Amino acid sequence: MTTETTTTATAKIPAPATPYQEDIARYWNNEARPVNLRLGDVDGLYHHHYGIGAVDHAALGDPEH
Fold it and tell me: Greater confidence, 49 or 42?
């Protein structure tokens, strides 16, 4: 018998700070090109092309941050 544990991380996502950020977020949230979605269907990781807020280097495993 195998037991599998799944954990879910909840990230606090900051609101867009400028109208430009809002426009970019709206564009990519509505973008439905199959390649952008199907790659995520394979491994559950969905790539996006915009960021809001400061970079969290710890998420990349960088020991200096």
Answer: 42
CB under 8 A, 24+ apart: contacts of 13-21: 13/52, 13/53, 14/52, 14/53, 15/52, 16/52, 17/52, 21/50, 21/52
Q: Which of 54, 48, 9, 16 is nearest to 29 (CA)?
A: 48
Question: What average pLDDT is seen over the chain?
Answer: 73
How far is it between the farthest Cα atoms of the chain?
Answer: 53
Q: How far is CA 5 from CA 2, 10, 45, 46, in A?
A: 10, 16, 18, 22
The CA radius of gyration of the chain, in Å to the nearest whole number, is: 16
